[in-house]
Each structure stands twice: as C-alpha cells, then as structure tokens.
C-alpha cells in the first residue's frame, strides 16, 4: 500500500483539537503507533517519523500532536460523562479495494476511561444472512453471523476493526490523549461514502448522532492475480487456497464472501486460469487439493503497478486411482446449515463443483433436503450434472431431513431417477412417509441406493440403566440378582458391574458400567434412540431395503458399533464415508469419504460407482489413511465370499499408507475430547480449540477385525509410503474379516463361510439389535402418522422376530451326540415295527438296516420342521422365532428323535401345543408389568402353572396339553419371579415396603414433604459447601459445590435422576470456586451456564454432559477490573475483581451475570459469552448494590418482565427494567441469596435459615423451614451436623422448582446438604 494513499494530507493540523497531556506517556504511545504502521506496511513519511522520534525523546506533547495530527483521519472525543463524538481529521480518506488500510485515530479522553474502543459502520458487516446459528456455534464460528444482513442491504462494502495487536494495546490507556489505528477494508472500488463511528460500550454516543461521521472514501482498485494451478501430473486442475497477510487477515475477508467463496471457510477454491483480487502487499498462500496432497506454501508479493501471477504445482503423496479406487462424498449440501439463504437460496451447482474438484474428490453427491427445498430441487437430474467432467462427477439426489421421516432417522437416497415421492405433488409438505422403510423401498424400486447418514446413536447411561432394571427385574426389588442379570445385554460382566460385591446390580452400578462400555468397540450399551442418526437401521436392514451405513462424521465408536452388530447377524450391510457438509463439518467437503474400487475406467459413471458402494467394494477414510489393497485368501471386499469346508486359517494381505502430515483435531484421533474416547472422530462439535497445526509422522495401529474383535494388529509408520501386511488368521466358524485403523480408516469386510453356514457371530449382537428396535418403537412411534402405524408396527415386529430367530439359532448350534444317533436308530426301529414291516427286519442284513435308518433322518427332520412351522403360524400361538437355514440340521436331529420316540412309547401324538421362547416369554412379562391388556385370547405359558415351571435355562421351553393358564398381573409376576429363582437355585425374596415418618413443611396449598440429604452421593465423593442447584426438562438435577482447590481431580458438578440416584459428575475445573449453575434451553437443546469465583473467576457454557461450549474470564472491556484479572486470576477479593455468582436469561438470547462478590456490577452478555454492557455497581440501593448475589428475570403471568436482584447485604430484593433502570425495592428478607419462579410463584432462599414463597403480587405465601433466631444467634451450626434439625434449614444458598412444582434447596453448610421438598398441596 502506498504511503500517499494512506497518509496524504488534505486539511490543516489545527483541524484536529489539542489537549494538554504529559509528554512521556504520549511519546511512548506514538512510538508504538509508528512501529505498528511500519509492521502493517504503511509507514509514515520519513521526515514525519524523525519529528515524532525527536518530540518523543524530548517529551514534547505539543510537538508530537503537531507532527502527527495531519495524518489523523478520525478524532474521537470522550467527555467526562463518557459520551463519545467523532469528527473528521486532516488525512486523506483513501482506501484500497481488497485490502485493509490503516487509518490513524486520535482519542481525546477527558473521561480517562480504559475501555476497549470499537469502530463501527452500517456499511460494515456480513453481506449474507440465514446461516444456522446453531451450526456455527457447534463449529465455534458464531462471529461470522454477528450483524447478519437480514435486510438484504447492498451497501455493505466495508469491513472495519481496530488494530489492537502488539505493539498497540487492546484497551485505551486512560491517558488524556493517545493515538490508535483503525483498519478499513473495502470490497468495492471508486468513490464510496460511508459512515464511521466509534464507541466504548453501549449507550455512550453523544446526543445528535455525533458518535459517527460520514466520509467520502476514494478506493483504489485491487490487483487481479492470475493463477496457474497444475496437478501432480502437470494437468490443469483446481486447488484449495488460504491467503493471509502478515497480520493474519484471510483474503477475501469471510464476512464479505458470496458464492463461489463460502463465508464459513477460511479457504477459497480456484481453477487453473482463474484470478483472485488482492491489494498491493505481501501474502502467504497455503495450497493443496485435499488430504491425498501435501500442503505447501508460497510467498506472494503483489505490486500496485502491474497485474500479478502465481504459479502453483500440487504434489500428491498417494493416488488411489493408481489402484482403481475412486473417492466420493455421498452427503454434501448446497443449502441449509452454514449456507446462507440470502441473497440466494443456497448456492449453485457450479459453486459446489469447484469445492468437490478442489478437494480431489471424484464424486460429490449434493443432497437436496428441507432448507431451500423448493429452490434447490430444480437442479435434480437422473444423471450426473452437465458440469461434470470425465473424472469428477456432481449428482443431485435427496436426503430426507427437515421433512417426511426425519424423526425416525435421516436417510440418503442416491442414484434416483425420480425425486418426487408418489403423492407428494413436488412438495416436501405432502405425501412423504413418516418412517423410513417406505421411502427406502421406493428408492430401491427405481434402481437407487439407500443408507443412513450421521449414524452414531446418542447414549444416556442413566436411562439405559433404568431400562435394564425395568426389563430384567422380575421380582421388582429395584436391583438385579445374578439370575435376573444372566442376559447378553448387560454392558459388562456381572462381576465387573457389581462394584460393591453385594451380589446385586443397582441402577448406579449399571449407569457407571454403561458409561464405561460406551467407550469400547464393540459394546452392547443401549442407546436412548434420540437424535437423528441411523435410528431405523435395524428395521430397514432386516427388511432388506438398506444398502449402507455412513461413517466418518459422527463419533466413530458408535458408528462402527452399530455396523458391527448388524454384520454379526449376517446382514450384508456396507460402510460408506460422508461429511454432511456444511452441517456436521463446514470446513471442507470430503472430510469423510468412500473409496470405491472400479478398476481402470476411461470415463467415470455415477451408477456403477454407487453400485460399488452398495456392494462394499470399498474402504472409508478421512483421506489421510488408505488401504489400497485388502484381501482374504485373495478375495477382495464386495466381490465374493471365501468358502471353507471346515475351520482353517486364512491369509490376510493388505497394502496400507498414512499421510506424512495429519491435521490436529478430535476428528483425526490425535486430540482427545474431554468426554472421552467415545467422541473420537466426531466432527459435529469442535471438542477442542481449533488448531491449524499439522502433526508430522508417528505410527498408526492397523488392526485386523473378525466379527468385531481384534485378532491381530501391526504398527505402521505414517510416512506417506505403502506398507505391506501379510498374516494368517484362524477361522473356526463363518465370520467377517476387515481391516481398520481407528478412527481414520475401515475397509468393508470379506465374508469367510465355513461349512456353508451363515454368519452368526454373536448372540449379544442379535439381542442388541432386537432391543434397539423395541426402544425405538417405544420412544418414537408417536412420530409415525397414525394411518402408517399398523404397517410400521408389522415391520418392527418382523425385525424383532428376525433378530430373535438369529439369537435362537446361535443358542442351539451343536452337533449330534452319540445318544441322539442311538435315539434316531431306536425311533426308526419303532416306526418300522409299528407299520408291520417287522418281517423285513428278519430279512435285511443289519448293515442294510443301518443305511435305511440313516436315510430316514432327513425325512424325519423335514416332517418336524413342517410341524413346528404349522404351530408357529397357528392363530392361537405366540410368534415364537423359528430356526432358518442350515442350523436346523444339528438342532433338530436329537429333538426329532426324542419326540418320535416319546410318541411311539406313549401310543402316538401328545397334544403338543407350541414352543415359547425366552424373548416371547419376556414380552408377556413386560406387558403385564406395565399394566398392558393382553387381550381375551388365553396366554399360553405351558402345560403347567408358572409356579411349577420344570426348567428355565437360557431359554424356557414349555409344552401344553391345551389348557390355558390365566393369572393376575401381580400373581403372574410374583410366581414367575419365584419360579425362575427356584429353578436356578437362587432364593426368592419378597420384601415389604417401608413407610418412614414424614417431615412436613408449610400448610394448605404450600405443603411439602422434606427429604434432607436427598441426593445419593457415591462414597468416593464428598461435598464442600453446596452452592446451587438446577433442574433440566427431563427432571435431572444438577448440583454444584465449591469444592477444594487442592483436589483438582474431584468433580464440582453432580447430576442426579429424579429419584436422587447419582448419574454422572464433571467440572473439576471449577474446584475451589464452584458457585452458580443454571439450565437454559436454546433452539431445543439445553445447556448449563456455570460461574465460579475464588481463584477460578470464570463463566462457562457447557452441554448437559459437561463438555465446554465456551469458557470466559473477566470482561476487561467493561473497564472495572484490575489488570491481569482475565489472564492470571488469583484468590483475591475486591471491587476491581471478578467474582461472579449467578445468571439470569433474557428473552432475546442474551443473559445477565451478577458479579455478586466482586465489582457488584450486573453484566450483559450475548449467548456466545461476548460482553455487551453493564449496570449497577456498589452503592446504597436503588440501582446500586451491596453483594448482588442472585438474579432472575421475573416474567410471571400478569407482570411486566423485569430483573429481580438479591441485594444480599442490604437484605432486600431490587427490581429493575431489562435495561437496568431502577423500579422498586422489596424489604423484609434475611440475606436473600437467589430466585426462581414457577407458574405464578417466586422462590427466595435466604441464608438466614428459611425459604420464602411469594405470589405474583410478591405477597408472602409461605416461609418454609424457618429457624432464623437460632441460626442468627448461635455460632458454628453450619459446621456441626449434630445441631441440624429435621424440617429446619441452616443456610439456604439456592433453591429451584422442578417441572412439577417440587423444590430443591442447596445449603451453604460445611459438608453440603441438598434437600427435596415434595409438593403435597
């Protein structure tokens, strides 16, 4: 940038006011300004610099101002009342298109404030609007959505900011005169008028709009830089470019981008021969073309007097096409999520194509979905888009999301010939099914391919634990004994779960076990069936209409775990890779990808690529890990099965390669998320601070997987080279074998079939799949339209029966014993004898007889199978699962022999009714336990009453002579539980309910049963001063205690279920300072807001599992805190210290924070934790405070919303408007600590030993647990539990309502106490 442009003078020096100021600090400020301008590439004229240096050395403040003021463009005056006005300075208003121009700002600071100064302009800000704030928040890019262009203003050609990096400072110094630097960017050229303003916080502009000034800028044109981009082989191509100047600015600025450049990416994409507009200056260009390429950098110097040129030659470290693999991302979007919907409804095919090409993908599937559906569907075609090239395809298809069946799981529909579902009338509002199977079947019927995206299930261990108790606890004593827990769905073995070694499994133990299990692969932890993942996949796979499950964008353990279970059941489900751009990850397409083996092709076609994906001739990867060859006995995935006549070893061979550099991040497995390994691989949330680092080298653990288990492994260096794996694996039954490197790489499997038997790898997998289907129906069937529900129910039932049949077949796989063969021979003899063929026995040689008997065996088997099938299909039988396939031979033979022998010995057929499986028996038990009607049809449970059950093993087999047993629900459950225990040799224990004496508080409508020490805190934890309590919409209770700073590994936040049972804990970062906690719902998702004082001095936003969304320290821009309070917090108190206590949430998304122990100010933030303003401060009341400890927005019915503040040391409540203007004071409280509301009630816990309930007129309705006189006159009670009285409070520090009007109270006592007040009135 030229000096003339930046600092030419048009006015006179005396146009800029002077103020008296000391020369030394002003000289230091000016020297730093001169250095900063040189750093920014816009130095002052040499003669001016010399004058400034001389004046600074002589501490001549007047000379400094005289020399520098002609180069000032803006003069900002702050009067003693902190009002701000702006006027034009003497410098020329010249800007540079495409670049940031430094402009000198003179600050006349009569208020001597040290706030942070901002520059603002209505011509600044994003040029787009409509991007999803929730998505940007997950990816920590919410700043890109600030001041979005909702009005569609076309005059946003500026980008403005203050240069506050060293050697300049972030805040004003407080000196009466100082100089600062503004950076102004223009996206347009020529004469442009703009309004420029400055502020030091909300509400400080001077009267008459003098806080801003209009200026006519002369904007010099940017320089076009022509790009030559050549691939590794020298052919022209496209590339990803990140262009930065020396200050770290990205070009073009993201807030000024419209397609083809995406504002939510730092990079841009360009093809060979295209140009980029840049200002004169020096830049660093980082370039690459996806993960198969090296990332290289070049320095670019742009001159102001000639067009620029940049030659880039890309370098591959691997080319999968050399091995016949063509990579694709089957799930990207051109609208919705991070995309804007203004000025256009998403982006065009050309914009998406350059993204696909620039990331080295061969195939990009752009899926139209809910957002902008009507606009985007115009780009659909049965074939690849016309802009496609021979080796790069773009195809528009559908994701059912945002409409239709989304509540039962999103689905990807590929290779569609028709995108209009019958009856939908080309809309998303009409005719679409509300469950996924019909739309998947419709896709298959037109030759398409189907799968589920972002597949991972969500897990809630407490819910899973309670479900296991409900399912298995036959004696209903709330725990599982060894007999009840003898089930494949236990997350771990009984011995591991039973931590207290009492022979019983509690909800708490099952919760902890499930939580551990979710970190392992595979596992049988039961999901909560929420979210939008592959919810219905266990139904659609059993129905044969699902081709693939997607991976590589959600937590890897859960993605692969679902797939493993379905493979273990023998289903040919394949794995594909996706990004769900820009919803899961907005950084680039191809974050997850699938490499499909097509061999040598001259021109890539979409349908064969999809076919290869569905057949599993592929591997999935993030692109930084590759298995370019993988085979078992020379058979590659997706081609055919390996056939073995008997158990044997197979040869596994592979060629693998790993990138020499990998980005740092949770998605790549080289950063560990706070929540543990269960989230490794996830791209939905930014689980750790964004890093631009690339990690070089290292090793990768490559594992050979058989039926979900690791059978061999090898460490491979990440050096960009191919490495060979060649080993033998023993296979003793039909199995699937694959290769993986967690979390970056997985091949599809090769099936190894032993003795023509289907793959039945795990009973636990079959039972898990069946239970997933049951849970989904239980928790989501109400989302299916009523007229579709019968068909869905039938499909779900078929799926359950299929998985139970698979389980049954594995349970009874065994070979015939000598006894069974003998029985068969005897049976055959009896049959021959009974049909009067005994004369043949005298004639036939014994050897011939033996051959005849053996020949009869398959006939007997066939007859028995037909017999059981007829029973299975009879109207009065339960739907017992039947064996299918080759398993019958060895299961049926001994049973057939025994039954026929019994029939002969007893004079022919018994009145055999049917077989009942254990799963069917359990379904009947579950129905009765829940009080469900089982209909008028008799419940056949055997030939004898349940109390006389003869045998119960892994499965129960009952025979009946036709007698129906009808029992009451209570008798049925009790007798079956006792019979089960008796059968297994475990004593049946019947316990009576215990009724303790109640402690009642209050009276009339405000009567409560109090339970002190309600939460069941595990013995390994202790409380130290319980401070606050909060409840989420599911009734989970969150308690925060202060904790001890010398116990940094101890949690400070504990979560309990509605019964007080411990669920989980986290928040050790708040130990020693834990204080405030509140739950807030934002766009349907709940978050925790936490504040901590003492040495922590921070506020945080967390998800409900404790993962940090943002974490902030003292808002230094408020101007009230001591230096270093935000960077080096210490356990120091004072009114210039940050010691926050509680939150209140505003309806516009902002929140208030009470600095109750520090400055006594109330701060206002936006929901991303950005400070906006403050009010209050120390004083005697009426808008000022002494310990504003608690805060709440009182918006009860009939009241104007207002801020209610517990002015604790004044023993009052103060009401203020939402803008901080004083309204009134309520007296008569004893150290009020916090506030909560429920319907028309307001709750005020008071440290002086009581909890007060008020109505909407703030009239007292009840004072609960009052022990004021004793607590306020006697010392030491808070530290001595022996002096605590049931029904009396000591020091209520916080109280809140739950969703049913019950109350939880946390007390400021040494060992902590949380009480539940159950509403009786």
UniProtKB/TrEMBL annotation:
GO terms for molecular function: calcium ion binding; zinc ion binding. The keyword Calcium applies. Residues 485-520 form the EF-hand domain. InterPro entries: 6-blade_b-propeller_TolB-like, EF-hand-dom_pair, EF_Hand_1_Ca_BS, EF_hand_dom, TAT_signal_bac_arc, TRIM-NHL_E3_ligases. PROSITE patterns: EF_HAND_1, EF_HAND_2. Keywords: Calcium, Membrane, Transmembrane, Transmembrane helix. It comes from the Eukaryota. The chain crosses the membrane at residues 847-867, 887-908. Gene3D superfamilies: EF-hand, TolB, C-terminal domain. SUPFAM superfamilies: Calcium-dependent phosphotriesterase, EF-hand. This is EF-hand domain-containing protein. It comes from Cladocopium goreaui.
């Amino acid at each position: 940038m030229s000096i003339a442009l930046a600092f030419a003078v048009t006015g006179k020096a005396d146009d800029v006011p002077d103020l008296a100021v000391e020369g030394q600090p002003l000289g230091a400020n000016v020297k730093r300004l001169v250095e900063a301008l040189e750093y920014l590439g816009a130095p002052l004229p040499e003669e001016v610099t010399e004058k400034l240096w001389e004046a600074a050395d002589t501490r001549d403040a007047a000379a400094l101002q005289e020399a520098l003021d002609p180069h000032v463009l803006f003069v900002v005056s702050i009067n003693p009342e902190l009002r701000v006005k702006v006027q034009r300075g003497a410098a020329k208003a010249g800007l540079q298109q495409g670049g940031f121009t430094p402009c000198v700002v003179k600050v006349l600071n009569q208020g001597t404030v040290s706030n942070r100064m901002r520059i603002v302009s209505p011509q600044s800000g994003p040029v787009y609007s409509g991007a999803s704030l929730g998505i940007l928040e997950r990816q920590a890019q919410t700043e890109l959505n600030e001041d979005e262009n909702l009005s569609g203003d076309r005059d946003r050609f500026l980008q403005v900011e203050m240069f506050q990096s060293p050697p300049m400072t972030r805040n004003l110094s407080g000196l009466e005169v100082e100089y600062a630097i503004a950076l102004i960017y223009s996206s347009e050229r020529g004469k442009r008028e703009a309004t420029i303003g400055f502020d030091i916080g909300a509400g400080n502009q001077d009267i008459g709009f003098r806080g801003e000034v209009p200026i006519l800028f002369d904007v010099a044109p940017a320089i076009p830089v022509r790009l030559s981009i050549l691939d590794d082989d020298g052919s022209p191509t496209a590339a990803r470019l990140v262009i930065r100047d020396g200050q770290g600015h990205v070009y073009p600025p993201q807030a000024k981008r419209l397609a083809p450049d995406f504002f939510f990416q730092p990079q841009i994409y360009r093809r060979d021969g295209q140009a980029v507009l840049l200002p004169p200056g020096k830049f660093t260009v980082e370039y690459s073309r996806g993960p198969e390429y090296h990332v290289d950098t070049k320095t670019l110097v742009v001159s102001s007097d000639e067009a620029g040129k940049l030659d880039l030659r890309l370098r591959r470290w691997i080319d999968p096409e050399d091995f016949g693999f063509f990579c694709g991302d089957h799930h990207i979007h051109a609208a919705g999520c991070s995309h804007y919907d203004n000025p256009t409804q998403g982006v065009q095919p050309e914009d998406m194509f350059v993204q696909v090409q620039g990331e080295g993908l061969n195939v990009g599937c752009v899926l139209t979905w809910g957002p902008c559906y009507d606009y985007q569907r115009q780009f659909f075609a049965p074939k690849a888009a016309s802009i496609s090239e021979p080796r790069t395809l773009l195809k528009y298809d559908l994701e059912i999301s945002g409409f239709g069946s989304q509540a039962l799981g999103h689905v990807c529909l590929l290779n569609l010939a028709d995108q209009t579902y019958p009856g939908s009338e080309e809309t998303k509002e009409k005719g679409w099914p509300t469950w996924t199977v019909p739309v998947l079947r419709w896709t298959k019927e037109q030759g398409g391919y189907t799968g589920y995206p972002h597949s991972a299930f969500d897990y809630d261990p407490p819910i899973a634990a309670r479900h296991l108790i409900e399912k298995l606890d036959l004696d209903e004593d709330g725990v599982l004994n060894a007999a009840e827990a003898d089930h494949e769905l236990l997350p771990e073995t009984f011995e591991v779960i039973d931590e207290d070694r009492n022979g019983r499994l509690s909800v708490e133990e099952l919760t902890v076990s499930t939580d551990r299990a979710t970190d392992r692969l595979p596992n049988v932890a039961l999901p909560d069936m929420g979210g939008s993942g592959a919810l219905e996949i266990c139904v659609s796979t059993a129905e044969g209409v699902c081709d693939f499950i997607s991976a590589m964008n959600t937590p890897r353990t859960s993605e692969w775990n679902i797939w493993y279970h379905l493979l273990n059941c023998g289903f040919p489900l394949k794995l594909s890779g996706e990004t769900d751009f820009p919803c899961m990850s907005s950084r680039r397409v191809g974050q997850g990808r699938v490499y499909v083996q097509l061999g040598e092709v001259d021109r890539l076609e979409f349908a064969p690529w999809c076919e290869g994906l569905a057949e599993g001739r592929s591997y999935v990867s993030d692109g930084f890990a590759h298995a370019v060859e993988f085979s078992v006995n020379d058979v590659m995935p997706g081609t055919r099965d390996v056939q073995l006549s008997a158990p044997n070893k197979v040869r596994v061979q592979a060629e693998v390669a790993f990138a020499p550099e990998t980005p740092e991040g949770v998605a790549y497995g080289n950063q560990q998320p706070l929540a543990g390994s269960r989230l490794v691989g996830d791209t939905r949330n930014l689980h750790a601070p964004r890093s631009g680092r690339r990690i070089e080298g290292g090793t990768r653990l490559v594992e050979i997987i058989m039926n979900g288990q690791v059978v061999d492994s090898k460490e491979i260096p990440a050096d960009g080279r191919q490495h060979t794996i060649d080993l033998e694996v023993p296979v003793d039954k039909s199995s699937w074998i694959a290769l993986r490197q967690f979390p970056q790489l997985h091949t599809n499997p090769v099936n190894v079939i032993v003795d023509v038997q289907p793959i039945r790898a795990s009973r636990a997998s079959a039972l898990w799949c069946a239970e997933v289907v049951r849970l989904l129906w239980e928790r989501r069937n109400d989302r299916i339209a009523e007229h579709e529900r019968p068909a869905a129910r039938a499909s779900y039932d078929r799926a359950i029966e299929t998985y139970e049949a698979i389980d049954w077949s594995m349970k009874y796989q065994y070979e015939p014993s000598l006894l069974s063969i003998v029985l068969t021979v005897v049976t055959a003899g009896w049959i021959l004898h009974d049909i009067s063929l005994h004369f043949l026995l005298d004639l036939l040689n014994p050897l011939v007889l033996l051959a005849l008997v053996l020949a009869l065996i398959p006939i007997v088997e066939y007859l028995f199978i037909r017999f059981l099938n007829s029973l299975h299909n009879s109207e009065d039988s339960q739907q017992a699962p039947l064996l299918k396939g080759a398993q019958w031979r060895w299961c049926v033979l001994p049973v057939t022999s025994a039954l026929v022998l019994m029939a002969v010995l007893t004079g022919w057929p018994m009145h055999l009714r049917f077989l009942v499986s254990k799963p069917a028996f359990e379904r009947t038990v579950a129905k009765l336990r829940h009080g469900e009607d089982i209909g008028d049809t008799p419940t056949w449970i055997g030939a004898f009453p349940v109390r006389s059950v003869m045998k119960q093993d892994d499965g129960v087999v009952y025979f009946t002579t036709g007698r129906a047993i009808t029992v009451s629900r209570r008798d049925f459950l009790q007798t079956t539980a006792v019979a089960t225990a008796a059968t297994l040799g475990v004593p049946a224990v019947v316990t009576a309910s215990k009724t303790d004496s109640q402690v009642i508080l209050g009276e009339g409508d405000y009567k409560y049963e109090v339970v002190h020490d309600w939460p069941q805190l595990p013995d390994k934890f202790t409380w130290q001063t319980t401070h606050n309590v909060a409840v989420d919409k599911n009734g989970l209770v969150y308690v925060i205690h202060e904790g001890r700073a010398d116990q940094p590994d101890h949690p400070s936040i504990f979560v309990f279920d509605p019964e007080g049972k411990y669920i989980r804990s986290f928040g050790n970062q708040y130990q020693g300072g834990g204080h405030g906690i509140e739950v807030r719902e934002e766009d349907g998702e709940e978050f925790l807001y936490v504040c901590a004082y003492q040495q922590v001095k921070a506020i945080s936003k967390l998800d409900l599992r404790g993962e940090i969304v943002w974490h902030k320290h003292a808002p230094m821009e408020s101007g009230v805190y001591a230096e270093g309070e935000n960077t080096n917090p210490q356990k120091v108190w004072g009114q210039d210290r940050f010691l926050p206590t509680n939150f209140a949430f505003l309806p516009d998304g902002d929140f208030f924070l009470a600095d109750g122990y520090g400055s006594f100010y109330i701060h206002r933030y936006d929901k991303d934790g950005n400070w906006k303003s403050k009010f209050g401060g120390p004083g005697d009341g009426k808008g000022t405070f002494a310990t504003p400890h608690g805060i709440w927005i009182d918006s009860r019915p009939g009241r104007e919303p207002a801020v209610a503040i517990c002015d604790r040391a004044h023993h009052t409540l103060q009401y203020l408007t939402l803008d901080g203007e004083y309204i009134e004071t309520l007296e008569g409280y004893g150290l009020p600590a916090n506030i909560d509301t429920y319907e028309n009630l307001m709750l005020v816990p008071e440290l002086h030993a009581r909890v007060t309930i008020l109505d909407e007129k703030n009239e007292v309705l009840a004072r609960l647990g009052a022990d004021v006189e004793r607590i306020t006159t006697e010392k030491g009670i808070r530290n001595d539990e022996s002096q605590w009285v049931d029904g009396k409070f000591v020091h209520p520090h916080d109280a809140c309502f739950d969703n049913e009007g019950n109350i939880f109270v946390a007390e400021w006592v040494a060992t902590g106490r949380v009480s539940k007040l159950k509403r009786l009135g």
